[in-house]
Structure prediction request, 280 residues.
Amino acid sequence: MSTANIGCIDSHQHFWHYEPVKHSWIDDEMALIRKDFLPQDLAPILKSNGVVGTVAVQADQTDQETDFLLGLAAQYDLIKGVVGWVDLRAENISDKLASYIPFNALKGFRHVLQGEEPDFMLQPDFLRGIAALKEYNYTYDILIFPKHLEAALELVKQFPDQPFVIDHIAKPYIKAGLIDEWAKGMVALSKYENVSCKVSGMVTEADYKHWQPSNFIPYLDVVVEAFGMKRLMYGSDWPVCQVAASYGQMIGIVEYYFASFSLDEKNQFFNQNASNFYNL
Prediction:
């Protein structure tokens, strides 16, 4: 059963007008994506892969980034939801969140925590910002490396009613074959029912040019066992994934892995979980 028969939702992808300074994180190894990526570029790719809609996620940490994505969502039906950026440490965070109430496409927020020290997310002003999200029914995407897992656990412990999702299965070191410490951290996070996990972004943690689908099986085994099929969702991480894999290859990894799962489980993973989490 292919995703075309399910009506797949891609829970994680990006758009940008490429600017060298703003997108300086796109290094020489990733030069392939140093250009514009917009909905008209993605639409035919989604159609050919049986994907009916996406969640567009911030790639820049400015209020203008959120406005940019909301503007695209107003123009293109394929964007079912937006994960924007807001300064959670702002003293007027409640006012900022309230200002987004008219924008139904805005589902939640994200900060590039992978670029911060682990204790960044435990600062009192950041925690105050996380605490403000629930009043407005906003989700929070946790973008981290394995070294941040312990701090992320302390974060989620403090907010049992806040919907969190771990982006990119917390970016395990697949290229190096490291798994044990990452797995312990993911299992600990999975004990909290308000935490979901995106199966996305894996190819960019593997060897860009020489990965095999089998490289991801041990990591997928861990998150499936830990989170179960009701708290996992598919994401492509397009266009970032293109430095290591085409969209078709990316979705093919998980189609192969979940081939023997029931139709109900596939529906949950490829559609329902993202729809429920983000209230699409």
Remarks:
- Residues 6-278 form a domain with the TIM Barrel fold (CATH 3.20.20.140).
- The chain is about 35% helix and 15% strand.
